[in-house]
Amino acid sequence: DELSEVTFTATFGSGIPNIALAKNGVGIMGKYDEDEGGLLQVGGKDILKKDIMTIYATDRFNVSLTANSSSKLNNLNSNIKTGKRLTYSNSSIVIGKGIEKVLISASISYWQTKGWSQTLLMVQKNGYNIFQIYGKTDTNSNETFFISLPPALFDVKEGDVLTLCMQSGLSQTVNILSENRGTHLTVEVVE
């Protein structure tokens, strides 16, 4: 039994490959995008890459609040992050190229010395409130208060600037606490 002839039929398709092997990784449901990078991409996006940034203060600082007017927390001078698409600038987080949705959370820990007040913790995008929560404070002496914004999803675009602010119903100076990153703003890229 000697095989003298073999015939193969090959069909080459066009369009989006189900699996694409590349030098630096694998693409599923799309070509591997060298600019995106990473070991595993789905639809041209690196699904193993996480872009997360937290900005926070390393030292306590005072904020002078004018009644019913928001004040930026300017002393969030440290950051920790993964990925490259979020950047730190002037106590704010700047959105980078290719980001459309982010998950935002924040908290503030502070001392207040005046009586009853309604205090707001807010996140601003490009100077406008997009996320806020009220906290009621009622004190006759120095007391510590904590307000937290649970994670929520927001639309963003390249160049958007996210800033942590607070507002009080009273004109006063509050002492922002920095212990254990109790005052922070965290942004996580979702897509």
| Count of distinct strands | 17
pLDDT averaged over residues: 86
Please, how many helices? 0
Query: Roughly how many Å is the radius of gyration?
Result: 25 Å
Shape: rod-shaped
Oligomerization: single chain
Largest sheet: 7 strands, antiparallel
| Residue windows where pLDDT falls under 50 for at least 5 positions | none
Q: What is the ordering of alpha helices and beta strands? A: EEEEEEEEEEEEEEEEE
Notable traits:
single chain, about 190 residues, mainly beta, six-stranded antiparallel sheet
What does this structure look like?
With 191 residues, the protein is mainly β. The chain is built from no helices and 17 strands. It is rod-shaped.
How would the blueprint of this fold be written?
Blueprint: E1 19-21, E2 26-28, E3 40-42, E4 45-46, E5 52-56, E6 61-65, E7 71-72, E8 78-82, E9 86-89, E10 92-95, E11 101-112, E12 117-125, E13 128-137, E14 143-155, E15 161-168, E16 172-176, E17 184-189
Parallel strand pairs: 2-3
Antiparallel strand pairs: 1-2, 3-4, 5-8, 5-17, 6-16, 7-15, 9-10, 10-15, 11-14, 11-16, 11-17, 12-13, 12-15
Summarize this entry quickly.
By secondary structure, this protein is an all-beta fold.
